[in-house]
Amino acid sequence: MKSAPAPPHSEPTQALGFGFRTGGYALVMAAILVAAVVVWRVSQWGPAAQPPPELDLTTCRVPRETLQRGAPHGAIPRMTKIRTLSASEADGTKIRRGKFLVKGDLVIGVAIGEEAVAYPLRFLVWHEVINHEQGGVPLTISYGPWDGGAGVFDRRPLRPDGTRADAPLTFAPSGMLSNSAQLLQDEPKTGPPSLWSPLQARAVTGPAADANLTLARLPAEVLRWEDWRELHPETRVLAHDDQRLKLYGRSPYSTYRGSDLIRFPVAPLPPAGLPRKAAILAVRVGASWKVYPVDRLVAAAKGGTTEVAHGEQRLRFRAWDNGEKPATAQILDPVDEVVRAYWFAWYAARKDARDLGL
After folding, report:
1. What are phi and psi of 32, to 5 degrees?
2. Whether 213 contacts 93, CB under 8 Å
3. What is the mean pLDDT of residues 11-22?
4. Cα–Cα distance between 237 and 86 in angstroms, integer?
5. Distance CA 29, CA 187 (A)
6. Tell me: the pLDDT tens digits for 86-145?
7. Residues sharing a CB contact under 8 Å with residue 312, sequence separation 6 or more, in sequence order
8. By the 8 A CB rule, do 97 and 233 touch?
9. Given Cys at both, which of 16, 46, 113, 264 links 180, Cβ 3.0 to 4.6 Å?
10. What's the rounded Cα separation, in Å, for the pair 262 and 267?
11. Considering just the CA atoms, what is the radius of gyration of the chain in Å?
């Protein structure tokens, strides 16, 4: 597959308006550190990956020039033995010499009926995709380290007429990106696999894209472990993979997250005014989407809650600063859909949903 040419932002001293005398060296060093993280992370994956399966690009619902391979096929470690712990069991569990979860650790929290489960990002940042069943619903939980996207979906795809497929799909990390945003790969019994965009909640290549299949996004929260546990005292939490213990104490994307440099080509980029990697909550009520930057919600909430206008409706948010870790926010009113991602990735993926609400 031919790689897309790098857009103008790939030159850091021009994209952010800095000269070498006023910070350009810092940006170059940040770019070197990001590249080193990529090399180091691949070195942790073990043996060389198998060649990628042949992708069917006859139908491609994203610009083909935006497709990039971010990791060798099969290199991202899969978590195939899924087990959960109670909150008290998690308290008594250590990973190597550290605690299982520490204060401020972020989790993707999912509550279905009376069953609540927390999926720690410290695991998902390495595995990226978890296939699980919760409350009788087959789920896939995804996290895209390059785009900051966190999603939970029913693995039974939806047809254009709204009917749901009976058999759930199994998803795996594809190593492929579109505009630096994660793409998942399904695993059909026969035929080529399809690629799926979590940010768009639909198939974007392959037979599934040809059939216009989509995924139903399920309610989920990205919160600090202590906040999710307070909301759901009986929650269970995804356990670690015993074969990957040495990985979980490391944060391979902290340098990337801490700069505004983007590792892979992205077009279009958002306008100036909001940091490209600002964490945002994209909220849909009916047909109306609004984007709420998490840091602005934190500033408005001042440690408590804040209320904002969303069309004719008022929405309430709780928001917390989280020290050196990413801030978090929770919407307190019922809405139709909520997505957390980096601003640049959402802007590039969803041109129909870019309006800032705060």
Report:
1. -65, -40
2. no
3. 32
4. 6
5. 39
6. 999 999 998 877 889 988 999 999 999 999 999 999 999 999 999 999 999 999 999 999
7. none
8. no
9. 264
10. 11
11. 20
Whether the predicted pLDDT of 2 surpasses 80: no
One-letter amino acid for residue 65 of the chain: E
pLDDT tens, residue by residue, 292-325: 999 999 999 998 999 999 999 999 999 999 998 9
Torsion, Cα 245 235 220 82, to 10 degrees, reads 40
Please, which pLDDT band fits residue 247 given cuts at 50, 70 and 90? confident
Mean pLDDT score, 266-285: 97
d(CA 99, CA 92): 8
**Is 186 strand, coil or helix?**
strand
CA-CA distance, 106 to 150, in Å (whole number)? 11
**3-class DSSP state of 103:** coil
pLDDT at 40 over 60: no
What pLDDT sits at residue 331? 97
Type and span of the H or E element at 195: strand 195-197
Which residues lie closer than 8 Å to 212 by C-beta, 6 or more apart?
Answer: 159, 160, 202, 203
Rama region for 200: left / alpha / beta (φ>0; ψ in -120 to 50; rest): alpha
**Token digits of residue 155:** 């693995």
Tokens 């795996």 map to which residue?
A: 172
Report the residue count for the chain.
358
